[in-house]
Structures are given as structure tokens and as C-alpha cells.
Amino acid sequence: MDGVTIAWWVWPLALFAVSFAIGAVAVLAGVGGGVLFVPIVGGFFPFHLDFVRGAGLLLALCGALSAGPALLRHGLVSLRLALPLALAGSVTSIGGAMLGLALPTDVLQVALGATILGIVALMGFGRSQDAAPPKPDGLAAALGMHGVYHDAAIGRDVQWCVHRTPAGLLAFGGIGILAGMFGLGAGWANVPVLNLLMGAPLKLSVGTSGFLLSVIDTSAAWIYLHRGAVLPMLVAPSIIGVMLGAKVGVRLLRMAPARIVRRVVLVLLLIAGLRALLKGLGLWN
Amino acid sequence: MELTYARWLSWGSRIALAVLAVTFFLYMLGLYQPLIPLERLPQVWSLSVDEFVAATGAPTGWRWLGLAGSGDYANLIGVAMLALVTVLCYLRVLPLLVRSGERALALVAAVQIVVLVAAASGLASALLAGGH
Question: B115 at the A interface (CB within 8 A)?
Fold first, then answer.
């Protein structure tokens, strides 16, 4: 379809509808909206990838900011755990955003496609776990990265601490680069690093991941804003659509078959990832 | 500390989202003249950001603030507010960390504020761009 021949107002309406669906499906599948938004809108809408990535970052940021207060109030975010990791991620996300805005679009499309296919593999084959609290390393002890949170599901307090902190900081440095470069949000990577690498309990990892997104994406969002890569016509309908869709998704959560939805999301990501990869290689334009 | 952060985050993000929704509604109603006419957008939104800026005269850095009276760039007020919420929350919890004797975490929070302010001011972009 040629965007020039279609009335301008069709695109924000279509964007709102797609964003609404992404918001609902993302909640049901337990992924961030940004990871679906960037490859789908970047692959099938006429907007340049620079603007799509800017919108994707803001969309992920809005989701994280909206979920943050409830997660903090319910004790599912530990600032002790989050603050050092957020710093590592936010510094590198600035570099990632600058790099993303400097790279040629086709190179970026290929890298985006490869990253999305990597996420599909991680989501499809990765397994989170809750094991006994690890022995904290020196850096974790120095930063006080330990504590207690109340798990309402089992009705008791859970003691936690983390290990492999230097590797965790390094991993969040990498996550920041990807988040800034592709505007994806990075919940898909945060949780495995917190849970599997650093040994934080799964619920605390999920809650803290949302908080981390809010800090990491904020730094990168400013870079896009300053470069002029935030297009109001793209950003506002996307954010409003995803936020409303997420509310519907939360209501559907009790009755929707989560495993099937997750598989549908994996297939969507697979198609969108392949589309980005082939578009970048000039094989599917 | 977490509860204080939650309170500031809750209010800050609600206000920012409300501003974004209202300004977009006004933009769509056409009450304020946009910098880039709506009919022209499909011709330029497929350009890279640098080409887009050159073709439309769209503002970079904080120059959009001077155009906040236009229908399209008024939307960036809400966007900027969303991106400022985290800095405000950190500024609020920093004294709490200092008072409770959490020196290491207070230092981390202070550095984070510097990073966020550098990003928001455009200093980070300028420094990194200057390095290339």
C-alpha cells in the first residue's frame, strides 16, 4: 500500500486499533508492549523506523510508569536491587539510542530482526525458576542488595539476596544498549538476568523489571526527543491505544487461555522479526 | 522509601498522561494550527529523522518548547512530563536515602540524577555526538 494515496487520518486510527490489540495481548502474554509494537508497526506501517523506535520507547515507558506505583506498594520492587542496575542500563541506553539513530536503516532493520528472533528463542525456550537464596557476592553485600518481601500467594515473607552482581551490571549495560537502540523496552531480558543470573526471586524480578524499564527508557527517550524522533501523530494514539488495551487485557486475564495467547504472540513476533530481517536485507519490501 | 516513590510516580505519570491525552484531542480537533499540516504528514513520516527535520523545519533539542502553542508540538509537553517523572522521584528519595544512612545507594541515586539530567538537558547527546 502506498501511504501517500491513503487519507492521513486512516493511519492514526489503524495505529490506535493495532496498539489497543497489542496492549491487550501483551498483558495476556506477559510481555511488554514495546517488544510487539516496534517490529509490528515498523514492519507494516509507513512510518520510518526512527519514529517507530521513539514511540516504542515512550510506550514501554508509559507502561512501566503506570504499573510502577502498584508494584512498589505491594513490595514487588526493591529499590536496593533496582538502583544500581538501573544506573548501568540508563547510561548505556543513551549510547544505544545515539547508535541507533546513527546507523543506516537497513542495518538497523537486520539487527532488529535478529534481536526479535533471539527474543522469540528466549521466550520459547527460557525457563524462570525460584531456587534457594544464593550466597551474596562482595559488591551485592556492599550495596545492600538483599531484603525481605511478602509473597501474598504463599502468605509468608521471603528473604532474598543476589549474587554475580558484576555480571548482572554488565548484562544490564547490554540491555540498556538494546533498549535504546531498538526502543523495545526490555522486560524480556530483565527478568531472566535478575532471576536466572543474579538469583533474585521470580516475583521480585518481574516487579523490579518494570521499575528498571522506567529508568532505562527515560534516559533513551530524551535522546529521541532531542533529535526530533518523537512524532506526536504516532506517539499519542499508540500510547492511548496500548494503555486502554492493557486495561481490557487485565480484565480478560482471568478467562483467556494464557498458553495459547503466548504462543500466538510468539508467532506474531516470529513473523515481525522475519519481516524486519528480510526488509533490512532488501528481500521483503 | 518505596511508598514515597510510588506516590510521586503515581501522581506524576497520571498528570503527564492526562496532559498528553488532552493535547492530542485538541490537535485532532484542529483548534490550534500545527507546525506540520496534517495533510502533509504522510509525505514526510516515512523519512528518516534527519531528512524529516530538514524537510519540515521540525525542532530539535528543547526548541519544541517555543512551538508548544502549535497543535502538534503541544503534545510534547505531556511526553516531556512523562520523561521527567523518574527524575522527580529520584530527587524525592535521595534525601531519604541520605537520612537513613544508605550512603552507597544515595551515591548511586545521585549519579543517576546526574545521568538523567544530562540526558534531559541535551548535554549527553552533545557530549556523545562531539566524541564521534
Answer: yes
